[in-house]
Specification:
Helix content of chain B: 25-40%
Largest sheet of chain B: 6 strands, mixed
Strand content of chain A: under 5%
Radius of gyration of chain B: 18 Å
Structural class of chain A: mainly alpha
Number of strands of chain A: 0
Distance between the termini of chain A: 30 Å
Structural class of chain B: alpha/beta
Number of helices of chain B: 8
Order of helices and strands of chain B: EEEHEHEHHHHEHEHEE
Shape of chain A: globular
Strand order of the largest sheet of chain B: 5-6-7-3-8-9
Strand content of chain B: 25-35%
Helix content of chain A: over 70%
Oligomer: heterodimer
Chain lengths: 226, 226
Amino acid sequence: MSLGARVAIAIMKKDLLLEFRSKEGFLSNLFFCLVVLLLFTFGFDPSSDALRQGRAAIFWIAIAFASVLTLGRTFQRESADQAIEALSLLPLDPGWVFLGKFLSNLLIIVLLMLLIFPLFVVFFDLTVTWRFWLFPVICLLTALGLASVGTLFSAMAESSKLREVALSIMMYPIIIPVLIVAVQLTEQAIKISGDIENWHWLTLLLVFDVIFLTAALVIFDYVLGD
Amino acid sequence: MGEVPMTSPIVQLSGVGKVFGTWPVLTEVQFSLVAGERILFFGPNGAGKSTLLRIIASLSSPTSGSVLFYGSRDGVNDYRRKMGYLGHSTSLYPDLTGEENLAFFSALRGISCERSGHWLEQVGLDRDACRRRVRFYSAGMKQRLAIARLLLHDPEILLLDEPFNALDGSFVQTFLQWIREKTVVLVTHQLELSWPLASRAYRVSHGRIKETEAGPAPPAPGGAST
């Protein structure tokens, strides 16, 4: 294995360890999603059309906000004692550092989605159908977009005085198309009858991911310096 | 002061300037580092010593002028492979144990874990301390662990910014023995400790550097500046 790949794996493992070790980490994100789902469940009549029409969007609102909390911590832990300096001085392409950070964020976001989805099914009284196979695919592709854009902007926001705000301001406008596509596809995955329509949304999601990941890898080289 | 070896420079700064906002921190710095040299930078607070060291470390880019590593801009990765940097911060992760910190930095450099165990022993951190989170270390213990991190990959070139901070006298002497055979650039206010080690010394003042006369005793800290 190349040094770059070893570095990416070491960074990913370290970030996952720190995320699950910290009390303000993953668990608080999980509770945040739970609260959002509960509020919407109790706030609307369960049999109302409004809730039925908006349920996919509610799921992705919870995930989008919780993801920003996760992504915001990506480079905060590096700047606590300037560990970022040690990473910046590695004799390799900074893209490997990005890849390690990106992979840890991707795994955390996917895990969050997979834990929240069963609750989403229960709270919104969804009927499990054969279309549910589509859901892990949507989750993975959306998480790829969120993690690539979020990891890059988290690094950029870290040098800003308003880092928490800066991440949201920079990230949401870029990530909105991905979330819209995710909502459309989720609606397809959870509907009770009929064929799956608009397959091209899936291709569109994949195209967004490729563009975001490539751009993030290129731009990260310039972000890691001073 | 010790002898000065004459070979081609590892790092060469030509007309380097650095401006933060409208504040010129460094002005027209000419400097070169040759293998085997032990260079000392001293001067008042805010003179630009740490900024200069960060530029020599390739952590920061100059606003004007050029920095060459082994005679070219492309030599930076080769330089980083052979270089160890200890800045104002320890570059450690407070929520990892001492052991986990060194294991992580070993993985980044492709070094075996036995080597990190060796350095933990060398810096005098016992088994109990190694298994405690760095957050609960004293300042001296953190600095010892940072020194273990610094020397982990056996760097030929050491760039040190106030490395004696929080260290007890006997450990400072041990550390000085370890670095005696290496190429060193040292920023310090503790001239009495480092003066006998230095082959060249520069006073930094108002962003300019000036080589000082070699002598058996260091100049007074409050002496005339450039």
